[in-house]
Amino acid sequence: MVVSVGVGGAGSAAAAHRGCSANHATPSTITAQEVVRYHPADLELEISDDGHRAASGDGAGQGLIGMRERVALYGGEFHSGHRTEGGYLVRARLPLPSGPR
To answer: Exposure of 62 by Cβ count < 10 A (0-12 exposed, 13-18 middle, 19+ buried)?
Structure first.
C-alpha cells in the first residue's frame, strides 16, 4: 500500500493524525492520498484512493454514515463518492472556533 499525506494551510501547525485509508487496506492493494488543509475559518480533510479495493469486511459497518453524522454534529460539510478518474473520495470540512488561538 502506498499512502501520500499532505498538510497545508497558512499559519497553522500540522496536527498529528492517523490515516483512515490505511485502516481498510492490505499491503500492495491500494494507493491512497490524505490531505489536511488549514484555512482561516475551517479545516478540510480529504482522503482519496485509486479504486483498487482491499478485501476487508462485509460492508455492513457504519463508516460513511458515522462520518457524515459526526461532521454534521460540528456544523461541517461532508462529501463522499466515486471519482471520475476512478477510485473514491471522502472530504470533510469542519468549522474552526473563532477567536484567538
So the answer is: exposed
Give the model's pLDDT for residue 29: 60
Query: Vertex 98, ends 70 and 33: CA angle to 5°?
Result: 50
Q: What share of the chain is helix, strand, coil (3-state, %, to 5)?
A: 15, 40, 50
Report the candidate in 79, 72, 11 with the shortest Cα–Cα distance to residue 45. 79
Alpha carbons 81 and 48: distance in angstroms, whole number: 10
Q: Which architecture, in CATH terms, is 2-95?
A: 2-Layer Sandwich (3.30)
Quick one: pLDDT at residue 89?
Answer: 93
pLDDT at 90 over 70: yes
pLDDT higher at 10 or 32: 32
> Are 36 and 15 contacting, i.e. CB atoms less than 8 angstroms apart?
yes
